[in-house]
Amino acid sequence: MSIRSKLSALLLLVATTAQADADCTSAAQCNQLGSAAYQAGRYAQAIEAFERQVRRVEEGDTAQLELALNNLILTHLRAGDPGMARAWLGVALDNHLSGPSTRLHLGKVAAALDYPALGASPVGRYLRYGGQAVWSELQISAQPGGGYRASFSPLRAGARVEEYGPAAIGELEGKLVGDGIQMTLEDAGLGADCAVQLLREGIELRVLEVFGDGCQDYGGMGISVAGRYLKVATQVRP
After folding, report:
1. What SS3 state is found at 206?
2. What mean pLDDT is predicted for residues 165-178?
3. Mind telling me which InterPro entries this protein's record contains (predicted)?
């Protein structure tokens, strides 16, 4: 998908959730809206409301942030997506949150997630959290005849993601050269001095990137693919 197509899809998502946002102006309202959707089994709607709840408390009350994150962990578990539940659990742990609900869900996620299957191969979908309930994505696919190919979709959330979508987006794709553990991105249209390297350890993947003139021309201002990614699925998205 091109950057223009991705941007159009993101703007459409912003437009379709505008009315819901109007009914979710506070963390308490988002919690109520999401809880009602959850109880009715409308998990996609619940997730949208709980993500808005996160945005309203992410820079404030840690207790309210922990509540919002645990709402998302539980809803993704009930929706049959333990990979995303693990991703949100990671956000809670990175924020040093360790209340009773987080500890309870840590065990539930561990029981639901097939860690050996996720770590068996580089192939799959990886996410890197960028704040404001926004995730950058990396997809690694197997290539005919052997080898792997990486497709990065980095995002920078910005302060008003609900009104305008992400502040910047990017797109970087190329083949991976290496042993499946330590790999280098090649044929991605980058300059000779603009190296991108990947190190995979179980379900975590670290991306190192050279920052320099022309090295981040694959996206808007402030875009980068560097950072820590978590594998959430063994299949790539179509």
Report:
1. strand
2. 96
3. TPR-like_helical_dom_sf (IPR011990)
